[in-house]
Amino acid sequence: MAKIIIYSKVNCMQCNFTKKYLEDKKIDFEVRDVEKSNEALEEVKALGFQSLPVVVAEGFEAFSGFRPDMLDKII
Asked: For residue 43, what are the CA distances in angstroms to 17, 25, 28, 37, 40?
C-alpha cells in the first residue's frame, strides 16, 4: 500500500473526518500539521492547494477535502 500523508490543522472538520476514516479502516498515515510546520505549509502551497486536508499518496494524484471515494482507491 502507498504511504499516505495528510496535511491538516487543528479544528479542521474535513481533516478530522479524513483521519477518522483511515483510522476506522486501520490504515497507517502520517499527519503534517501546517500550523506547526512552515515546511508542511510550503509543501501544500507547492502542490497548488489552498484548503485542507490535502492527501498525498505515492502513485496517486494529490487531492483536497474529505473524499472517501479517493481514499478507497488508495487503500
From this structure: 21, 27, 21, 10, 5
Contacts of 24 (CB under 8 A, 6+ apart): none
8 Å CB contact between 74 and 4? yes
Q: For the beta carbon of residue 13, count every other beta carbon within 10 angstroms.
A: 9
Look at residue 1 and tell me whether its pLDDT is greater than 90: no
Cα dist. 68→8, 38, 49 in Å?
16, 28, 19
Q: Strands 30-33, 4-8: parallel, antiparallel or unpaired by DSSP?
A: parallel
What does the pLDDT average to over 8-37?
Answer: 97
**pLDDT recorded at residue 2:** 79
